[in-house]
């Protein structure tokens, strides 16, 4: 957790001096820290534009979240795997696959698929919506817990593609012409898009907004809209 993520004066939290209050601004590319740099000014080391917060972070996050919520419905309703045998075709969705493994006695595999392919995307969507909503309101409710929640989202997000990997593996292995053929269904594309969109939403969300009040967000937005000063003589802090 970087300096500047703590908001001084919150109830129940020890007051801490923020990097923004000290006039420090870190480059997101080379990690150089500059003192009294203007919003949008290029970094004196690598030329990357400096910002106290990610530009349009909440707008981009909401756009990706809304798209992910829309795609979440077909991802769970449309078949992700189509199995064709001598006895006909079987269309399996994520939940029907979970039910099949559970009834067949594969409780561990059913639990893994259910958690990784159903609960994890749902958890990420719910958590990101909560974080974005509270950050947009400048809420001071449970800020340390919200910061930890964001890090949890980053950790578990890598397991969200389990279904895509399983279907891709089966499609490549089980291709016995005349007996059994497995193909990926359209649901797997919708599911993959949900995973990608939630990843983009997580990357677009600036966790430092968790520690900003509504007034600070307005001040940062006003600074961002002001043209950057041509001030390259700053020395790294």
UniProtKB/TrEMBL annotation:
Pfam families linked to this entry: PqiA
Sorted UniProt keywords: Cell inner membrane, Cell membrane, Membrane, Transmembrane, Transmembrane helix
Stretches the record annotates as Disordered: 213-237
A Gene Ontology cellular-component term: plasma membrane
Location(s), subcellular: Cell inner membrane
Transmembrane intervals: 62-87, 107-134, 155-174, 180-205
PANTHER family per UniProt: INTERMEMBRANE TRANSPORT PROTEIN PQIA, INTERMEMBRANE TRANSPORT PROTEIN PQIB-RELATED
UniProt name for this protein: Paraquat-inducible membrane protein A
């Amino acid at each position: 957790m970087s300096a500047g993520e703590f908001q001084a004066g919150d109830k129940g939290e020890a007051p801490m001096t923020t990097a923004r209050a000290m006039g420090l601004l870190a480059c997101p590319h080379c990690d150089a820290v500059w003192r009294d740099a203007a919003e949008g000014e290029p970094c004196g080391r690598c030329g990357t534009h400096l910002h106290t917060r990610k530009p349009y972070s909440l707008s981009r996050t909401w756009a990706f979240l809304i798209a992910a919520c829309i795609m979440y419905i077909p991802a769970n309703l449309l078949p992700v795997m189509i199995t064709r045998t001598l006895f006909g075709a079987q269309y399996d969705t994520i939940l029907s696959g979970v039910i099949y493994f559970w009834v067949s006695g594969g409780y561990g595999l059913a639990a893994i698929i259910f958690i990784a392919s159903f609960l994890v995307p749902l958890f990420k969507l719910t958590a990101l919506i909560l974080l974005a909503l509270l950050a947009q309101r400048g809420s001071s409710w449970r800020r340390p817990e919200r910061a930890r929640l964001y890090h949890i989202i980053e950790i578990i997000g890598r397991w969200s593609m389990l279904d895509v990997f399983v279907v891709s593996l089966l499609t490549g292995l089980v291709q016995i012409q005349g007996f059994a053929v497995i193909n990926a269904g359209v649901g797997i594309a919708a599911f993959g898009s949900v995973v990608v969109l939630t990843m983009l939403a997580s990357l677009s969300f600036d966790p430092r907004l968790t520690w900003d009040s509504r007034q600070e967000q307005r001040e940062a937005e006003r600074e961002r809209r002001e043209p950057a000063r041509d001030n390259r003589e700053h020395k790294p802090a």
